[in-house]
Fold:
Amino acid sequence: MSCSDRDPDCIFCKIVAGEIPSHKVYEDDDVLAFLDIAPTIQGHTLVIPKCHCPTLIETPPETLRKVAAVIRRVLTAVVDATDADGSNVLQSNGACAGQVVRHVHFHLVPRREGDHLTLGSRQSDPVEDDLAARAESIRAAM
Ligand code: 5GP
Ligand code: ZN
Structure:
């Protein structure tokens, strides 16, 4: 499947449509950023195109350009709001590479010195976070 307006079975398309609640931190006509429901660390944010593109290879360059601009803007706010020392931007394509949700997405993960985060097992031990308050602090940093 290539990029399309919407896949009715896709959980991220349902978030875009507002059928599943999420803590949004940024939205425009083409791109959405929202908090990961199982954050590796406080502030873990996902950035997606609103159109349904399964993987990066199927995502048109023009869409990727818009997503990249939002990644930069939201990452700046995430790092600021979490007082981070650095960050990871992670993206996986295909089940063999660890992609669970087949709607292309980028993980924005703030990093602190000594956080001992293991990126390979990022969903095995999710941190407790008040997602509503966290989303508000990131929006305020933008
Ligand atoms: P992947 O493993 O495909 O790279 O990442 C998918 C991410 O989506 C995971 O980190 C997971 O926690 C997140 N996720 C899955 N379902 C939902 C959901 O319904 N809402 C939100 N906010 N995040 C989700
Ligand atoms: Zn989708």
Remarks:
- The beta strands are 24-27, 31-35, 45-49, 86-90, 106-111.
